[in-house]
C-alpha cells in the first residue's frame, strides 16, 4: 500500500509517498523562505496563496520521481493541524479533492506527531517506550511515548517556545530570517563563557521550560553593548546557544530519570542545531543510553513525516469523515492510540 502525504502547516509545502513495505520512496519540498525573508517572518496570507500555487505541481513531481500515477495511491494524508489556518486549508482542500476524485480514504495527521515520529524514517529506529523532546518555533514539549498515539505530556514551555527564542535572539543580532541557521553559524565563531546567560527553571523540580527570561537577558546584553555590538555578536550567539542547549539537557535528563528510560528522541526544527545535538548526544552517552535524531532535512516541516504517520493511521482505520477539517490548535493528548 502507498500513502501520499501533504504538509502545508506554515511556510513549507511538502509532498511525499510512503510505501508500507519499502518505506519512504519519494519526497519533494518547496520552501517559502525567500518570499518571507523580505518581511522578517512568515506572512500567513502569502503562505496560504503560495501553498495553493505549489501543491499540485509538487504532487505530480513526487509521483514522477518514482514513475507512479495517482491510481497507484491508496490513501491521501494531510496535515490537519496545528498550524496557520489558511495554510492548513490549502493542503487539506487538495487532499480532500484528490481523495474524493480517486475514491480513496483521506487521513488527517497531527503535525507534531509527524515531527515526533520523524526519526522512525531512519534505518535505525528507536524502540518504544521513549522520551521525546519536540523543539520547534511554536512548541517545546517533553513527552513520554508508550507507542504511536499514546503520549503523556511531561513538560512544556510556560512562555516562549525554543524556536521563538532563537528567532528573537537572531533578530536582536541583526540576523535575517530565518534566524536559526544564521545564529548557529555565528555562534561557531563565538567564545564560550564570555556571556553567561541564565539557564531558566533548572532548579524547578518539574520538566517545564521558560525562555522569556533568556530572551530578555540577550536583549539586555545587546543594549549594554550597543556601541560595540559587532565585536561581541558571536560571543552573544554562543552564550545564548550554550544556555539553551544546557537547559534542554538538564530537563531531558530529569524527564528520563522520572520515566526510568534511557532512550531519547529529539525532533522539530530546532533539533537541527549542532550544539543542541552534541549536548544531548553527550547526555545519552553519559547515561549509557541512546539518542535518536531526525535527519536534518526532516527536522523542519516536510511531507515525509506526514506520509509516514498517515500510513500508520490509515492501517489502523483512523480515517477522515470526508469533510475538510483543520485545527489551528490541537493537543497531542486527544489522539487515539494505535
Task: Outline the low-pLDDT stretches.
Answer: none
Q: Using DSSP, what is the number of strands?
A: 10
Q: Which class of secondary structure composition applies to the elements?
A: alpha/beta
Regarding quaternary structure, what we see is single chain
Evaluate the radius of gyration: 20 Å
Write up this protein.
- The chain has helices spanning 33-37, 44-65, 85-102, 111-116, 162-172, 179-187, 212-224, 229-259, 274-286, 303-315; strands spanning 2-7, 12-19, 23-31, 75-81, 106-110, 130-135, 140-147, 150-156, 263-267, 290-293.
- With 338 residues, the chain is α/β, with parallel strands linked by helices.
- It has two domains: 2-116 and 299-334, Nucleotidyltransferase, domain 5 (2-Layer Sandwich); 125-293, ATPase, nucleotide binding domain (Nucleotidyltransferase, domain 5), CATH 3.30.420.
- The chain has a five-stranded mixed sheet with strand order 3-2-1-4-5, with helices on both faces. It has a five-stranded mixed sheet with strand order 8-7-6-9-10.
- A hairpin with a 4-residue loop joins strand 6 and strand 7 (140-147).
- The protein starts with a strand and ends in a 23-residue tail after the last helix.
Amino acid at each position: 500500500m502507498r500513502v501520499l502525504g501533504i504538509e502545508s502547516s506554515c511556510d513549507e509545502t511538502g509532498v511525499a509517498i510512503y510505501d508500507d513495505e519499502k518505506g519512504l520512496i519519494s519526497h519533494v519540498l518547496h520552501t517559502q523562505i525567500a518570499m518571507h525573508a523580505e518581511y522578517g517572518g512568515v506572512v500567513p496570507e502569502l503562505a496560504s496563496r503560495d501553498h495553493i500555487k505549489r501543491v499540485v505541481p509538487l504532487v505530480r513531481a513526487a509521483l514522477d520521481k518514482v514513475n507512479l500515477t495517482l491510481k497507484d495511491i491508496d490513501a491521501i494524508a494531510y496535515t490537519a493541524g496545528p498550524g496557520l489556518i489558511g495554510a492548513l486549508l490549502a493542503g487539506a482542500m487538495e487532499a480532500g479533492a484528490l481523495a474524493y476524485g480517486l475514491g480513496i480514504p483521506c487521513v488527517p495527521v497531527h503535525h507534531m506527531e509527524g515531527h515526533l515520529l520523524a526519526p522512525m524514517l531512519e534505518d535505525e529506529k528507536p524502540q518504544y517506550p521513549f522520551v521525546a523532546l519536540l523543539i520547534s518555533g511554536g512548541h517545546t514539549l517533553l513527552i513520554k511515548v508508550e507507542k504511536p498515539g499514546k503520549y503523556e505530556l511531561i513538560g512544556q514551555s510556560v512562555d516562549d517556545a525554543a524556536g521563538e527564542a532563537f528567532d528573537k535572539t537572531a533578530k536582536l543580532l541583526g540576523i535575517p530570517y530565518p534566524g536559526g541557521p544564521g545564529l548557529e553559524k555565528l555562534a561557531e565563531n563565538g567564545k564560550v563563557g564570555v556571556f553567561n546567560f541564565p539557564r531558566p527553571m533548572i532548579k524547578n523540580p518539574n520538566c517545564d521550560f521558560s525562555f522569556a527570561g533568556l530572551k530578555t537577558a540577550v536583549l539586555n546584553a545587546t543594549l549594554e553593548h550597543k556601541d560595540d555590538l559587532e565585536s561581541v555578536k558571536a560571543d552573544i550567539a554562543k552564550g545564548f546557544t550554550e544556555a539553551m542547549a544546557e537547559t534542554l539537557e538538564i530537563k531531558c535528563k530529569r524527564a528520563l530519570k522520572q520515566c526510568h528510560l534511557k532512550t531519547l528522541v529529539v525532533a522539530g526544527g530546532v533539533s537541527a542545531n549542532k550544539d543542541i545535538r552534541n549536548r544531548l548526544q553527550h547526555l545519552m552517552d553519559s547515561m549509557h543510553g541512546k539518542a535518536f535524531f531526525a535527519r536534518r532535512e526532516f527536522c523542519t516541516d516536510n511531507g515525509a513525516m506526514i506520509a509516514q504517520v498517515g500510513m500508520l493511521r490509515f492501517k489502523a482505520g483512523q480515517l477522515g469523515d470526508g469533510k475538510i477539517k483543520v485545527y489551528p490548535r490541537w493537543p497531542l493528548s486527544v489522539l487515539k492510540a494505535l
